[in-house]
Write a structure and sequence with these properties.
The complex is a heterodimer of chains A (562) and B (230).
Chain A lengths: L4 E2 L2 E4 L3 H12 L4 E5 L15 E2 L13 H11 L6 H20 L14 E2 L9 E2 L5 H15 L3 E4 L1 E8 L4 E8 L5 E5 L2 E4 L20 H9 L4 E2 L4 E8 L9 H4 L3 E3 L13 H13 L9 E4 L5 H7 L1 H11 L8 E10 L2 E3 L11 E3 L4 E2 L11 H23 L5 H20 L7 H15 L3 E2 L1 H18 L13 H25 L8 E2 L7 H4 L1 E8 L2 E8 L13
Parallel strand pairs in A: 1-10, 2-3, 2-11, 3-7, 11-18, 17-19, 20-21
Antiparallel strand pairs in A: 4-6, 5-6, 8-9, 9-10, 12-17, 12-22, 13-16, 14-15, 15-16, 22-23
Chain B lengths: L1 E7 L9 E7 L7 H12 L18 E4 L2 E4 L5 H4 L3 E5 L6 E3 L2 E2 L2 H9 L19 H5 L12 H5 L1 H5 L5 H12 L7 H8 L13 H5 L6 H13 L2
Parallel strand pairs in B: 1-5
Antiparallel strand pairs in B: 1-2, 3-4, 3-5, 6-7
Helix pairs in contact in B: 3-7, 7-8, 7-10
The chains are: A alpha/beta (562), B alpha+beta (230).
Chain lengths: 562, 230
């Protein structure tokens, strides 16, 4: 039957979280391997621009920064939905992991004293965000990949995760599609660490890479019996480039950029947290003060040519190539776009899920350190801190674990998956996958976007359920085994539909406004009823929603003003 | 409508690549990558190509478009100024399928130059210090996205399979020139010799196709100089 591969730990995903987890497991002396949808430097971590938060105190105005302040800003930014014990772990670890990345070669920008440079970002009063011009994700991911080459981390490239394989009380490994040859292959492991990133491509206008389809989250939700947490909290980045929705970093406002409506007015404090700025921009557009009812302007011209070239060269490049505009001479047309999933696979602060042996880190996970709204600069931090911790705790788990019949569970499951794919490939249904995919994106953007309300969410949920039914009759044109994009994208579509249901159902239930989740029919935060995490489980083919409490340590919820 | 002539090839089935023609509506400011998705979704689900970020930062979609190595995502149809667009895979690399090439030799050479910071000094509690000027020396090279455009365009890499090539040499210089790196002599040993920096004939083909405006020739010349006068 063929178990293709066997390692003590399998990491799924080769972005920052996945590679960091693998490095930690390797350092613990374990046999670890990574499987990835793409070559590691093609992962979405590459696209992060602005920076990574750590209380280094390097910048003028932020000398007395410390982890407590970072914790408070993160908790307040989260609209008090983050688990404060987990945030404390992240902020305490932050300086150490930033220094470690620097020691590994990350080319951070520098202060005049030669220290790591820091810039202001939303939701903090002073510069805390460490950066490498405006390609910080690129600088960090390349450094992490370089380290993984040095440490000879084994990566299986171009595999699409299909399923997590369970044992009675643990995790037996994973099943994945080898995209290169079309084979369905099994990876036996004592522990699995998920690091598969977000699901932004469920939405129409997203800053995310095209590979961010949520396939990892979906596989865990559908096949591992582990719930998703807070998935209705979707971050819309205030400034994505009008037309392509490519990210224009918050660093552009951190460096002093202004937002203008069509009347030439600045209408919001530019460095308020993202949920607030995104709503504010959308309101301008909705009320006719945008341009073409679609965008507003981000003006950098007053920063001057030198600063733009020095601090924001990547942004300039993007504007020139994708919009035909040089921000030195002209303002940038921007609109909010889906950017990040605060929710994800339900884990604790060790990265552990409710299933022994199954861990998750980075955007696919929800610890929760971001609660209802993530601060800019905290996602790169999250990936590395919790990548490292999940690698550490998964290694400890493997070292103490008793062996159980992994192989048998895998081979049974492999047959099931093969039959499922075979059925899909030979489906005679008439449904065109492109229609289902496009309608799903439109539905989410229209009904579960920046502003939400009951009737729209109900409509959205009904539509998602309809699309789930229609998916059962989709037709796959391409029957080739090698590099079958048609098959890959349609397998991803199945997961997208299920995640969409979780997002919309969670948003419909949550009758309050908190962080990124804004209900026009319930515009206030309601701590009495809703200071709790949404826990979504897959039961009998649909989503079942429950809740669990938020951990509060130092900071009692208070009104969130900036 | 824009006519796309796309090279099709499956090493399991075909002896020779063939060109297939597709008509794509040019309704908005469409990139070549978007046009490829249009084809896969509406005309031919069997077409194969790589993609990820669609924002010119991940390096997945390098291919030859109207005679030049480019990123499909970064190439807007209107900028090509032509109603017929011919696309083939990156030259001088083995074709896996259609527009996908095997990047194994590219990454093997990348690994050869020890693409990671080596510093044998005691690790400080905080960061290694680095001045603006020191950091500025590697500013250009750190933008490399490992797309392979330069490697595929290099005449010397095409005619000598052992040549490290412009991308790996740029990476080698990025570490050689990093004020924090202490393995300078070792790095020069790696790039010295006829398959290293000295194979470069300064044709600048690499610089012409870099989507990040890097000039690999600069790094290579700097390495040659350093290797000569070490």
């Amino acid at each position: 039957m063929g178990i293709s591969y066997k390692h003590q730990i399998i990491v799924v995903g080769a972005g920052l979280a996945g590679l960091r987890a693998a490095l930690e497991a390797k350092a613990a002396g374990l046999d670890v391997a990574v499987i990835s949808r793409v070559q590691p430097v093609r992962s979405h971590s590459i696209a992060a621009q602005g920076g990574i938060n750590a209380a280094l105190g390097n910048a003028e105005g932020g000398r007395d920064d410390n982890w407590e302040k970072h914790t408070f800003d993160t908790v307040k930014g989260s609209d008090y939905l983050a688990d404060q014990d987990a945030v404390e772990i992240m902020t305490k670890e932050a300086p150490g992991i930033v220094y470690e990345m620097e020691h590994w070669g990350c080319p951070f920008s520098r202060t005049a004293e030669g220290l790591i440079a820091q810039r202001p970002f939303g939701g903090a009063e002073f510069p805390r965000t460490c950066y490498a011009s405006d390609i910080t994700g690129h600088a960090l991911l390349h450094t992490m990949y370089e380290r993984s080459v040095k440490e000879e981390i084994k990566v299986y490239e171009e595999y699409l995760l299909l399923s997590i394989v369970k044992n009675a009380d643990s995790c037996a490994g994973v099943i994945a599609l080898n995209i290169k040859n079309g084979e369905i292959e099994a990876f036996e492991a004592d522990a699995v660490i998920m690091a598969t990133g977000g699901c932004g491509r469920i939405y129409n206008k997203s800053t995310n890479a095209l590979i961010n389809t949520g396939s990892g989250m979906a596989a865990v939700y559908l096949t591992a019996g582990v719930p998703l947490k807070d998935l209705e909290f979707v971050q819309f980045h205030p400034t994505s480039l009008y037309g392509t929705n490519i990210l224009i970093t918050e660093g552009a406002r951190g460096e002093g950029g202004y937002l203008y409506n069509c009347k030439g007015e600045r209408f919001v404090k530019e460095l308020a947290p993202r949920d607030i700025v995104a709503r504010s921009i959308q309101t301008e557009i909705n009320e006719g003060r945008g341009y073409d009812n679609a965008y507003v302007l981000l003006d950098l011209r007053h920063l001057g040519k030198k600063k733009i070239i020095e601090r924001l060269p990547g942004i300039r490049d993007i504007c020139i190539h994708f919009a035909g505009i040089d921000p030195i001479d002209a303002p940038i047309p921007i609109q909010p776009g889906q950017h990040y999933s605060m929710g994800g696979i339900d884990t604790d602060a060790k990265g552990a899920t409710s299933r022994p042996g199954l861990y998750a880190a980075g955007e696919c996970a929800c610890v929760s350190v971001h609660g209802g709204n993530r601060l800019g600069g905290n996602s790169l931090l999250d990936t590395i801190v919790f990548g490292k911790l999940s690698g550490r705790f998964a290694s400890e788990y493997v070292k103490t674990k008793k062996k159980s019949g992994q192989g048998q569970a895998l081979s049974l499951h492999l047959q099931e998956i093969k039959s499922k794919i075979h059925r899909l490939e030979n489906s005679t249904g008439k449904e065109k996958p492109t229609d289902v995919r496009n309608q799903l994106k439109e539905t989410l953007t229209e009904n579960a976007g920046i502003f939400r309300e009951k009737s729209k969410l109900q409509k959205g949920l009904a539509k998602v359920k309809e699309l789930k039914e229609r998916y059962k009759n989709i037709h796959i044109q391409n029957k080739n085994k090698k590099f079958n994009l048609d098959l890959v994208r349609n397998l991803e579509l199945e997961g997208k539909l299920e995640l969409a249901e979780v997002i919309v159902a969670g948003a419909l239930n949550r009758e309050e406004s908190r962080g990124s989740h804004f209900r026009t029919d319930f515009p206030e935060r309601n701590d009495e009823k809703w200071l709790k995490h949404t826990i979504a489980s897959f039961v009998n083919g649909t989503v079942k929603i429950g809740y669990k409490p938020v951990t509060i340590t130092q900071f009692k919820p208070q009104a969130r003003t900036y | 409508m824009v006519t796309f002539k796309i090279a099709r090839f499956d090493s399991d089935k075909d002896k020779e690549p063939r060109f297939q023609t597709y008509e794509v509506p040019d309704e908005k400011e469409m990139s070549v990558l978007e046009a490829l998705f249009y084809i896969v979704e509406n005309l031919d689900g069997s077409l194969a190509f790589r993609y990820s970020c669609r924002g010119a930062v991940c390096g997945s979609c390098a291919m030859r478009i109207n005679g030049q190595n480019r990123l499909a995502c970064q190439t807007l149809i209107k900028k090509l100024g032509s109603t017929t667009i011919t696309i083939s895979p990156l030259p001088h690399l083995p074709v896996q399928k259609d527009l996908m090439v095997d990047m194994e030799s590219f990454f093997a050479k990348y690994e050869k130059i020890k693409p990671y910071l080596i510093n044998n000094d005691p690790i400080p509690d905080k960061e290694f210090k680095q001045s603006f000027k020191e950091r500025a020396e590697i500013d250009e090279m750190i933008n490399c996205i490992l797309c392979g455009n330069c490697y595929s365009a290099c005449t010397m890499a095409a005619t000598n399979s052992d040549y490290l090539g412009p991308a790996a040499l740029t990476k080698a210089y990025r570490f050689y020139a990093d004020s924090r790196d202490t393995a300078k002599a070792e790095r020069l040993r790696i790039i010295d010799g006829e398959d290293g920096a000295f194979r470069c004939h300064t044709l600048f083909n690499c610089a012409e196709v870099c989507p990040k405006n890097i000039v690999p020739t600069y790094s290579i010349q700097k390495l040659k100089g350093a290797a000569c006068f070490k």
